Amino acid sequence: MTRRILAVARTELRLGIRNQWVVLAALTLMAFALVLGLFGAAATGEVRAGRMVVTAASLATLSVYLVPLIALLLSFDAIAGEVDRNTLPLLLATPISRAGVVLGKFFGQLCVVALAIVVGYGIAGAVIIALSGGELADGLLLARLIATSIGLGAAFLAIGYIISALAGQTGTAAALAVGVWLGAVVLYDLALLGILVADHGGGFATTAFPYLLIANPADAFRLFTLSSIDLGSAATGFAGVADGLPFPPQIALATLAGWIVIALAAAVAVFKRIEP
């Protein structure tokens, strides 16, 4: 079974490289990261935080927007595409379970996302670290950001498989993927902000609000990442929220891991209902 899963994963990785997904995603991430690192940190003025620390906080926000989009665009046709191309019966005729198919596609496409993040953020981060003096702490901060960004990509890859299995057609799956990205990354936070403002200092901010934040994988990633960055007097917005969490930041990371497991299990369950 492991060999069959790896065979599917290798196929997905080769497709990602052949279709230039790795190159395009890496270039996009690197370009934005360099702009934020070279110009964004300078705009903060005199703060206690160093250039790489401020850049890491900016890249955390960048990851929230770009990494889920990249992951969803990769995964939305993982199953729906097989249905549209009439290759699903052939795929299921091979000696591999449906769970093996989902896991194989997941690991292969996760390698694509991971390569793009490592190359994109790695090159940009190396430039920023070199300009700021090349301290070991900066390198560790960059490595942690890359690792958690890959985890964020894994969560949205798994969510993409649910969309793909439910839609059954690539056009519908693409529309749903964009809708999920818009809802999870943009509208969810706006809704919480609206409730927070309407609450007028009630108990929502200290009771439900932190837990509703970590219920969203994008916000869980951002809270965990920003909680590990010491911005000092520059800590505002989500960085300030991360400092006042009523639970350890590791809970946000556990929530992100839970999304990966639950979404993969749900994708397999929905996939099993599709007739070849």
Could you explain how this protein is built, in words?
The protein is mainly α. It has one domain. 79% of the residues lie in helices and 0% in strands. The protein contains 12 helices and no strands. Helix 6 (98-132) runs antiparallel to helix 12 (250-271), helix 7 (136-167) packs across helix 8 (170-199) and helix 10 (217-227) runs antiparallel to helix 12. The protein is globular, with a radius of gyration of 20 Å. It starts with a helix and ends in a 5-residue tail after the last helix. The model has no long low-confidence stretch (mean pLDDT 85).
Would you spell out the secondary-structure blueprint of this structure?
Blueprint: H1 2-18, H2 21-40, H3 51-75, H4 80-84, H5 88-93, H6 98-132, H7 136-167, H8 170-199, H9 208-215, H10 217-227, H11 238-243, H12 250-271
Summarize the structure.
The protein is mainly alpha-helical. The protein has helices spanning 2-18, 21-40, 51-75, 80-84, 88-93, 98-132, 136-167, 170-199, 208-215, 217-227, 238-243, 250-271. The protein contains twelve helices and no strands.
What is the count of distinct domains?
1
Q: How would a textbook summarize the main sheet?
A: none
Radius of gyration: 20 Å
Q: Average the pLDDT over all residues and give the rounded result.
A: 85
Name the beta content range: under 5%
SS-derived structural category: mainly alpha
**SS elements, strand count:** 0
Low-confidence stretches: none
> What is the 3D form?
globular
* Overall helicity: over 70%
Number of helices: 12
Order of helices and strands: HHHHHHHHHHHH
Quickly list its features:
276 residues; mainly alpha
